[in-house]
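tool_log.txt
---
The assistant was asked to compare two proteins side by side. It first ran the structure predictor on the initial sequence, then on the second. Raw inputs and outputs are pasted verbatim so the downstream comparison step can read them without reformatting.
(1)
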Amino acid sequence: MSDPKPAPTYDLTTLAARAGEEARPNRAPALVEPIYQSTVYAFADLDDLDRAMSGQEPSAFYYRNGTPNAATLERALATLEGTEAALVAGSGMAAISAALLGVLKAGDHVITDARVYGVTYALLAEEFPRLGIEVSFVDACDLNEVEAAFRDTTRVVHVESLTNPLLTVPDVPALARLAHGRGALLSVDNTFASPAMFRPAEHGADLVTHSVSKYLSGHSTAFGGVLCASAELVALARTRLLRLGGTISAFDAWMTMQGLKTLGLRMRAHSGNAQAIADVLVNHPRVKAVYHPGLSDHPQFHLAMDLYPNGFGGMLSADIEDAPRFVKALAGRIPLAPSLADVVTTLSWPWGTSHRPLPEGERRRLGITPNLLRLSIGIEDIGDLLGDFERALDE
């Protein structure tokens, strides 16, 4: 028996690069999944690498293609939305773009609600026509108008479960039946509701998207988007996403998972507080209109009560007399911040932020005026919130 070969002696530069990596000790499993920040992974041999690259075995191999943290988040969100699969992306717009481009080509036609988020509106109104995809904007709450917009080339109907910022409530089950009857898919942006309040796939939606930066993560610390759908539709979207480079970071995926664990608890608090605030604002003389599905004068009140038996989340909007003065009166207590769904209450100004991409005439036609404020109601004590709003309105 020959003597074993002596271990090679390495220079310090080599040792610094490799030390500790050659024999990681076995440890008890971490209660919380670690962050896998590596941008690339090593394989035992060519066969092992080939299985990963061909998709025969789930595996991380390059950051743009996914990370273990992203895969964990995808499994969690598919479970919560009740779909076969999910695809996480670097932003909500990346998720919507990948979802739609996965099933559309030049010559196809999309029907969308005119009330969608401003950047979604810009994507559909400006970018898709450049790709040869035609788009019709309709009132998605008017089923006759939606049906009249169908063409032989219509492939997708896209709506929001609760629209931003006016909280209209499209009839998702009816839209699904209408779309499927014409051979089209129904796409639903479920960001405002979250799966804690509404699961579009249970009502016939084929493509369900979110900005995970909002209620899913819940703390204004993580950024990303997700598509939840069948395995086939997710695979189509994943191909587009990888080519466009819309990858979510491992850290953002990890942070979203931490927020996701309290989604149910947070949404109950958001929803109860928002209903209480809406009930008070609607009776104040300085408030000209309140938009919230839980108010009996909401145009889709009965449909909303049927589809959302557990509440509507934390969003509402209000047309307030002298909105700039109201915002200043809340300074130091309720921040003006152009996003939503934090655990603290925030205000946003749709006219100049989320719906700024829309032409001024279209904003006014939809009811988005300079005095309209969008309120993202947090989970604070309701008595404290009511006091803040009442004092600001009375100043």
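(2)
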Amino acid sequence: MNCFLAFFLFGFQSLALGSEESGIPQAVNPNAFEGTDTERILQAIEAAKESVQVVRIPKENANGTAVWMIDSALLLPSNMTLILDNCTLQLSDTSRDNLFRSDNVGLGVTDPSWNENIRIYGIGNAVLKGATNPRATGDGARTLSLNPQVEQEKGNWRVSYGSDAGKPGLKQTGDWRNIMVLIGYVRDFSLKNVRFENAHGWTVSFERTVGIDISDVTIFNQEFVTVDGQQLMTANKDGINLRQGCKNVRIDNISGLTGDDFIALSNLDTAPDKPKQNGDINGSMVTASRWYGPEDDIEQVVITNISCQNRYRAIAIRGSDKAGIHHVFISGVIFRAREDRYEALLIGGRGYGEESLPGKIHTIQAMNIMGNGQSLVRIQAKVANCHFLNGMYTGLNERATLHEIDSAETRNVTENAWLKVR
């Protein structure tokens, strides 16, 4: 057991703020406050900021329920540890916001400062859930619809379910508020031992975050929500996303099922001619969706022990134009494709702005990969220094690698024991 987590598991009790005879401080318990579930948790966070910097949310809610209903984002300050002790937090049907967000980014925050040292640790069965009937789902390019399948049959593909669809005065497209956990401009963030269910878009997304440690997480994020017995399509149901400027990342022991990419590293500048700014509600990122230089490269990423079943890719690495993604190590992936169109690893990505320039995606090693689908790896960019070792591909095609760019335009790409097997 992680020593820090064990300390909280055995050292903290469920009472309000104080000190025990042992000298170990107690965590702040939201049950000690008045108001809605959201208000009580936010009050606990505010109290903890000035004292022990630890909030423990227990399974038992003082209002007599077993679920903490969240109406708006729980904002996380610097130097805060949140202990989810066998509890369930669920977005309410009235919420149109993240479940968690670092408190330094948000609507209208054009010049965010850096936060640091934020921890979310689950004990036992800690569950974070989307709304039963979400007001909005999907990314910033999706129009809300009450009947998305019908719209798609008409050829309107860029839609996603939301109960706000058609309501006057309400925003009719998705945006970054549909991400369940959204972290931006943070140094040192940890997330451990949590189960996610039915996010309204991406499950967890990081923007310009340095020092990320995620482990022992389960993600169940299918591409539909069931409302009154009817399955309604919801788009962009990714697992974990790394966006511009994410560095020094460890992702380990993640499993589950998603309706879109399980893990995505996306450094994209899809409309460089349009101004981008922090805090804009009209996009899929809460910080500026631009690449401003090497400080916005995604780099030093280690991804290990991944087991997933999903419609798209296990791990997708997408860059556009000058944006860099490099020094990525991947080991131990089991990919079970729900369709034959996609692959365990995608490197490149098309349809997201200008094509990645030669060598901007580089120094990637993937090893011990097993999967079916279209291939083990699909290469769509002029990559450099990419190495693939010990792969077992069990799909229909004859080769474990699918080149969608002339291999002569890549540099130093090798395969060793990267095989099609029966």
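---
observation on (2): Residues 1-24 have pLDDT under 50 and may be disordered. Helices lie at 3-11, 37-49, 148-153.
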